[in-house]
Amino acid sequence: MQYNIAVIKGDGIGPEIIPEAMNVLNAIGKKFNHTFNLTEVLMGGSAIDKTGEPLPGETIDICLNSHSVLMGAIGGPKWDTLPGHLRPEAGLLGLRSEMGLYANNRPATLFQSLRNACPLRQDIADKGIDMVIVRELTGGIYFGERGRDDTSAFDTEKYSIAEIKRIAKVAFETAMVRRKNVISIDKANVLESSRLWREVVHEVAKDYPEVEVSDMLVDNAAMQLVKNPSQFDVILANNMFGDILSDEAAMITGSIGMLASASLGNTKCGLYEPIHGSAPDIAGQDKANPIATLLSASMMLKYSFGLEKESIAIENAVNSVLEKGVRTADIKDDSTSKVVGTREMGEMIIREIQNGY
After folding, report:
1. Is 292 helix (H, G, I), strand (E, B) or coil?
2. Which of 130, 155, 247, 286 is catalytic?
């Protein structure tokens, strides 16, 4: 079977981590008799440098005509002084909109081999961390009306019933194949948009009587993720709250360099990316952790292509390498037996795939 994948290396560490994912996909292709046609396209700062815009039309066309998109990371201080519509992040928001990707699925799991890297107390880590954050992607304050003048600026938080309903359905469907628990995040004690969010979520919940649903204010959720993360199964959140809480969830699992994400819409064509940033401070130094990107590729195989055993092969290979005590610098601890760079980590995971995982 052939699959066409648009590949966005992006900025910072993106050009280092994406090649490792491309190598892993090629290894999977050889092992399971698939062909992955990987087409590189520009987006973000690299696109600005070459074309003057963060999301060239050619990139949009190729992404829309691919089976899915794999992305590294975008942005960096080099482009921070540009107007908002010309910054790298505008390219990502634009691509999500063009592809109709309204749901971001971000698993946060603490690997048993990384328990010592978890910054929480050992008794909390021992209870386990295994959650999925379902974040709305194309509405809310990031897409609302905005403006500024000489003395002020504003951004508008706005959600329609239809936008809330469709992301709530994603959360409940996700819960149905997990532990059947949804905690919906809002700020309903202050924000009118959150009051509507809460009303619609509970209306959708009536179609999923098997799923337990509850509400949690976002400030309390930030505290509960540190105090008792094992209580969370599926977290449902709007664009901004989900953005912030998913980064917090990433850190309590040991490293933001470990977590993948999938952005999906009404089709199987998705955008897969690690949740970390472009890390310009370590770019070009062979220090970046490629695992989140490799796991993003694994999610693509599972969710967009239906290749379950191929996805599991990547996950098992990652876990096998970690169980041997191999670490990149961001996840090293006192028990680490070997610290490796980006390329060597990718090579070791490929060897595990080739050896039968």
Report:
1. helix
2. 247
